[in-house]
Fold these 2 entries.
Entry 1:
Amino acid sequence: MAKKTVATLQGASKKLTKAIKMVKSPKTGAYTFVESVMAPELVDEFLAKK
């Protein structure tokens, strides 16, 4: 289950994107958020990973 919140960040010369994914812990069942800053081309791959 992924929550697709994507904000575009402007760097010096590169365009970066911050992606936030909601992940359910198998041990406790609680949800946590995983954040990552990456190139826009890698966002779909990041959100597809479990």
Entry 2:
Amino acid sequence: MAVFLIILLIFGSEYVVKKHMEETGPSTQRRELAGGRVILKNYHNTGAAGNLLKDSPEQVLCIHAAVLGGVMAELLRLSGRKDAGMAKTGLALLAGGGLSNLYDRLTKGYVVDYVSFGAGPARFRKLVFNLGDFCVFAGTLLVTLAFLRRPAGK
């Protein structure tokens, strides 16, 4: 039950933040925080991570929906297992972030991103993220760790 609360919390939080970003900030407006190391701006991403396949939003939508379906299926498969807490938490993070971004794709035709960083390599500074993206990264890490920690044959 807690995993579904995680999904709902991520989706709800993202809905509120993205709605605020869309209502208050045009894509040209920037707000620098932490001495310019964190930048808030409204960005519309029609592609996948890093704007991959930005000219093929229909393909991105199909891939996104298929991967999210697989994540949800695995989460349901593990739902009764008490020994799979790390994997279930990771899958819940993946599902919450993925669902939020899929909702954007379905309702707007793009994903609302709003956080970038003014530090690090130049290529990294060009990327723009949202909370859902950070949840997907964290979820992927947890699922990977859970997979690596599981006993052979399970």
